[in-house]
Amino acid sequence: MAVTKNSYTVGGSGQAGPYTYSFTVIADTDIKVSVNGTVKTVTTHYTLDAGNTRITFVSGQEPSTGDSVIIYRDTDEDPITNTFNAGSTIRSNELNDNFKQLLYIAQESDNQSLSSLGGTMAGTLEISEDQVIKFEGATS
Questions:
Q1: CA 67, CA 114: separation in Å to the nearest integer?
Q2: Full-model pTM
């Protein structure tokens, strides 16, 4: 599985960071940060140092000891990176950019899905009202 996120549990010191991430992105806007499941805003809650692949929380916005910090990639799927017109030149770098965008979206979907073959779901699941959840088989 491709790495599309890095997770941290905040220790007793250094809550501001920096926190590094180990995945590549197409655009800096594809980098997202959440603390205990709440998505944070760049410049308001943290600063992004894309050149050194790390984020640092802004003074007064630092997570607390024991908090869960997740830095993840969320590739924008709309619009597609390059659009081709009839009769225009198709460049290899434009095709590669489109395929990279699709690859990243597929990797993110794969890492966020729960397999029908089993597995463990982690994180918070929010379900809107008037939804039915059916568990088949024995439950405790």
A1: 24
A2: 0.75
Quick one: how many helices (H) and strands (E) in the chain?
1, 7
Q: Is 95 left (phi over 0), alpha (psi -120 to 50) or beta?
A: alpha
Whether 9 has a pLDDT exceeding 60, the answer reads yes
**Angstrom distance (rounded) from CA 128 to CA 40:** 22
d(CA 45, CA 25): 20
Distance, CA of 129 to chain centre: 26
Which two structure tokens, joined as six digits, stand for 27?
């655009």
Q: How far apart are the first and last CA of the chain?
A: 32
Distance of CA 59 to the CA centre of its chain: 23
CA–CA distance, 92 with 107 (Å, rounded to integer) = 22
